[in-house]
Amino acid sequence: MDNKSYLVKMNGNGVCGKSTLNGKSLSGNAVNGNGLGHVTTNGSSYPAKVAKSRRLKWEVKPSEMANNTLNPIRSIVDEMKLTPNPDKPMIALSIGDPTVFGNLPTDDSVLQAMKDAIDSHKYNGYAPSVGYVKSREAVANFYSCPEAPLEAEDVILTSGCSHAIDLAISVLCNPGDNILVPRPGFSLYKTLAVSMGIKVKFYDLLPEKEWEVDLQHMESLIDESTSCLIVTNPSNPCGSVFSKDHLQKILKVASRHRVPILADEIYSDMVLPGCSSPSMASLSSDVPIMSCGGLAKRWLVPGWRMGWVLIHDRNNVFGSAIRQGLVKLSQRILGACSLVQGALEGILNNTPQSFYSNTISLLKTNSEICFNELSSVPGLNPVRTSGAMYLMVGIDLDHFPGFENDVDFTERMVTEQSVFCLPTSAFEFPNFFRVVLTVPEQMMVEACVRIRQFCLCHYQHHSRHGNQLDQ
Mind listing the pLDDT tens digit for each residue in 266-303? Predict the structure, then answer.
């Protein structure tokens, strides 16, 4: 059959009129019930699709998922009027990216592992959606312990820890379900859940107890539609580290109600001296846990986008269905960067302990500077940190009647002192601000001096209600 173009002309009553092919007449048939006309060329009959209706104008709308996706940090920060004081260099203590100031480079061994992966020419193609077996084995070996053993099949490699969290929520939850999320807590949990039609219930963390979970409040939120409990330890934004005893109490709540746990452990082992951060899986005997982590924070390479889900399936609760669901979801994209996968074994096995220790040393120094300096500032109430890269500072707004809320307070601090701390309304917990501790030490000192100046300028001994408050 020749591939020849032809035109089918329709008359007003839906019947084919005379049609032509290369100037010759073609026979036409009435339109059949499915909106197809037929034309004959070279003795063969071909259906010609007839449009039942035409849109009169272009109208392309975003999906419900897109409309329901909102990042609280961006929605708040983008609305802030951030005009730094031109007489003072900007100090941004708002972004949880340890690479911003250049004082925390990753280790040479990490870079060498990447160079070796590139030079091998083995990792330029597509990897399996869940990751290379050898790379998954490297992660399993690194995090396996007698209390929570892991094998390669228990590891899904992802495009950063955010992707790992997305997979875990997606495989455990359906539209109409609810998940339990810490408050204050990482905003991505809500962003992902709401976009998928999943309800978010916030359980409170207690600043007066160094951000321990209000266990009674957490338990009161659980119902038959609760499909996942998210626990962040060490915590973003709080910088807290739960004790072994407290983690066990959380596990008891999950066990009583048969709710699986998504453990966000991206800051695993980023804890200050004197603290320990056991994985939730190592303490669980019956609660199934998906632990999400990655290279971003501990190895100081957030831009490399390498994360993972570790499946700890106590008593085969998840079973093959959940595992297969994770595989299917991982196939929606082509998975984690193959080059970084190729470097994983070298990164995990060859990074010296001194590298981790140096990072912790800087975090400890800056946390002490920040806590000690701001503790003596009237109207501020910092909460001591134990890990991750953050410290939370409470604002006693009764003594700052010139400000409406934490957003107003932090916005003006940029305008007057060129210091930007993130208002914690972005974490569903107003009237605090979060300080990032990864800046150079002298910058931390200077930031605290400026924050003190700002507060002394605006602090009033009388509350906004006209009462004298003791300090």
Answer: 999 999 999 998 999 999 999 999 999 999 999 999 99
Q: Give the right CATH number for 67-102+353-458 from 3.90.1150.190, 3.10.20.740, 3.90.1150.10, 3.30.750.24.
A: 3.90.1150.10
Length of the chain: 471
Closest CA to 401 of 463, 445, 354: 463
Do residues 230 and 182 lie in contact, with contact meaning Cβ atoms separated by under 8 Å? yes
Q: What does the DSSP assignment read for 85-119? A: -TTS--EEE----TTTTSSSPPPHHHHHHHHHHHH
Say if strands 307-312 and 155-158 run parallel, antiparallel, or are unpaired.
antiparallel
Q: Residues with Cβ < 8 Å from 383, sequence gap 6 or more?
A: 207, 210, 211, 238, 239, 240, 391, 392, 393, 394
**DSSP code string of 25-62:** EE-B-B--TTSEEEEEETTEEEEEE--S---SS-----
Question: Residue 169 belongs to what H/E stretch?
Answer: helix 160-172
Which of 220, 172, 209, 207 has its CA nearest to residue 192?
172
Tell me the C-alpha to C-alpha distance, in Å, between residue 323 and each of 132, 317, 329: 17, 11, 10
3-state secondary structure of 368: helix
Give the three-class secondary structure for 224.
coil
Q: Which residues of 59-82 are buried (b: 16+ CB within 10 A; e: fewer)?
A: eeeeeeeeeeeeeebeebbeeeee
Whether the CA torsion 329, 333, 334, 340 is positive or negative: it is: negative
Q: How many CB atoms lie within 10 A of CB 109?
A: 14
pLDDT in tens, 135-189: 999 999 999 999 999 999 999 999 999 999 999 999 999 999 999 999 999 999 9
- Which pTM does this prediction carry? 0.86
Residue 262: closest CA among 285, 280, 284, 282:
280
Domain 108-350 has CATH 3.40.30.10: no
Q: How far apart are CA 144 and CA 146, in angstroms?
A: 7
**Can you read off the two tokens belonging to residue 426?**
């972005």
Domain ranges within the chain, ordered by starting residue: 1-54, 67-102+353-458, 108-350
Read off the tokens for 23: 């100037």
Q: What is the dihedral of CA 122, 128, 134, 135, to 10 degrees?
A: 90
The residue among 238, 256, 237 whose CA lies nearest residue 248 is 256
C-alpha distances (whole Å) from 267 to each of 127, 241, 270, 292, 360 are: 26, 10, 5, 10, 12
Per-position DSSP letters for 303-344, written without gaps between them: GG--EEEEEE-GGGSSHHHHHHHHHHHHTTS--S-HHHHHHH
